[in-house]
Amino acid sequence: MGLGHVFGIKLILNPLFLFLLGLYVWLGMSQYLSAVLLSLVAHEMAHLVMARGYGLRVNEVELLPFGGVARIEDLAESDAYVESAVAVAGPLSNFFLAGLAYFLGNNGWLGPESSTLFLETNLGLALFNLLPALPLDGGRLLRAYLARKVGFRRASEDLALVGRLLALLLLSVGLLALLVGYLFPSLLILAGFLLFSAGREKKEAMFVLLRHLMSKRELLLSEGVLPAAELVVLESVSLGEVLRRFLPHKYHLVLLLDQELRPKGSLEERELLEALLHHGPEVTMKEIRQGR
Description:
- This protein is α/β, with parallel strands linked by helices.
- The chain has two domains: 2-217, no CATH class; 227-290, CBS-domain.
- The protein contains ten helices and seven strands.
- A hairpin with a 5-residue loop joins strand 6 (251-257) and strand 7 (263-268).
- It is elongated, with a radius of gyration of 22 Å.
């Protein structure tokens, strides 16, 4: 559900987050709800401020249970340090709020109940978001590192799988607790959030890669020079599998071999981008070469 725009950034409220709000109101946990909302807003604002500080464009922010997703243009093409800094800003803001709550409570400027609530809420949000799974910030931190080694798409797919496995673990714990008479709705909502968001991260990886390839072509045309990377590929391999191994900030040249490992020519990144646009990721290297 759209909430409008703030400073040109579209705000979206995920249905799962709406369900969580209604659940807390129904359970009479309005104070806890206030702590969660404040912590989430601080978390996402930290991402936005860091992204804007590096000159990145933020299109929209979607609020989800126990976190949010800030959709930032050019983040996949940015330096690994920049992507890591944007990702870690959210958890750091929650650690700061947890420390502030502890300080205020210790000095009597905040009631013990409120101090404990804000301390636990922010610590929980920060630690959960640092888990190494997409779409969490820990997953984005790890992806920034892995993308330079195995490529953005492959790193995204692997960490989205970790996110799904984490969701299944949380769902299992929640259902087991329910069987023995304990209800932890947050675990079930959290599992649903991770399953939904991890699936979307995997789907979006190809679109992000396509945008990256197009921007890299423009960069090469404007600057005239880019570092290159070479791949040796069998002709029977699909284009999607090759693209999974593309590295950021490098222009790729692909040497083609047949099943006898004899050279059959080469393809460069421009040709692969055109093949992706016209035929999709399932086309093989041989079909691309023959269709020249």
